[in-house]
Amino acid sequence: MKKNLYPIYALLLVTLISINSCTKKDTVNTQTVSYYMQTYENCNLYGVGTVYTVVDGFGISPYDVQQAFVTAGVTYDLTKVTSSKLSSLKATAISGNFDEVASIEVYIKISGASGDGIQIAHTENIPASATAVSMTLNGAEMKQFLGVASEVTIKIDQKAFSGSMPCVDLNTGVVQATVTK
Fold it and tell me: What end-to-end distance do the CA atoms of the chain give, in Å?
């Protein structure tokens, strides 16, 4: 009886190996290119209970993206980018803390386009007395912004005023692109 089960076990093993080999990602023919976004500091005045929006001074330049490819030793060819997403972003209070901040939202759009763009990060439940928060990443696809001048919009929602707002520094922003070789 046991001898008759061996062909079934062998067939089952071959099937499992075949399924497993078809579902593996092809990491041999891909490489990750990391683009480090510039640090952006905002020390403007805020309105009470309003959303203050910063649009200027923080963007992604096509030249900087090209330099990230060169640094990684990868040919700059945007047609080979299969995916590009924000992998980290942090907000830091330069002075004071975030007690007066209700939320921070970060958007990206092609320079000159109307509207906010695509939300790429936001805060969730900023703890009391926090001086730094890691932004929650939305997982938005960003490859359409790599080859064109893009701008980042920062929206800071202030709580009812009872103290002073901190200068906000967005830093450690990293966009990672997966590129086929």
Answer: 52
